[in-house]
Amino acid sequence: MSTFPTTCHFFSGLFYHLFFFYNYTKQSQTPTPKTIKPIFSLIRTPKKFFSSLVAPGACGKPPTIDDGIILAGIKEQYAENDQVTYGCPLYYTIEGGPYKTCINGEWIGEIRCNKPCIVDRDAMNRQNIEFKYSRHDRIYSGHNDMIEFRCKRGTKVGPVSMRQRCVDGVIDLPTCSGR
Asked: Is the model's pLDDT at 107 over the cut of 50?
């Protein structure tokens, strides 16, 4: 007995695709329900598949940004000119934005969350320095902010300036020596 190749008939609905795969079990010119054997039947299409389909000019999900979150405008799909509002955590500084706009199927807008600099007492003790204008044990300084230091009593200034700028979470601490 020979078996004919498997064939497939496809029917599509809103949430389901119906696939009929058949193996012909008897050699016959015209297959009938008695001469075919179903192999598969129903496959559900996930909702995620439909949410990834967007209208022309519309946008899918807005992009994520490092250290940032979407504060307003969250939807399943976005039409032309829809906006989302981004935000950054406490002590972070937003650069650009805070909006991205759906234009011609693309998200337009530059947004970045710059990290703060954290300077604490332990780091300053290792360098023999202290804050020039503060008695705090720790300072959170925003991106591009300046912090001024001074040498601890009995130490001398090293080669790095005592006034330093925070650049996206990085600050060069000056060193004082001679203790």
From this structure: yes
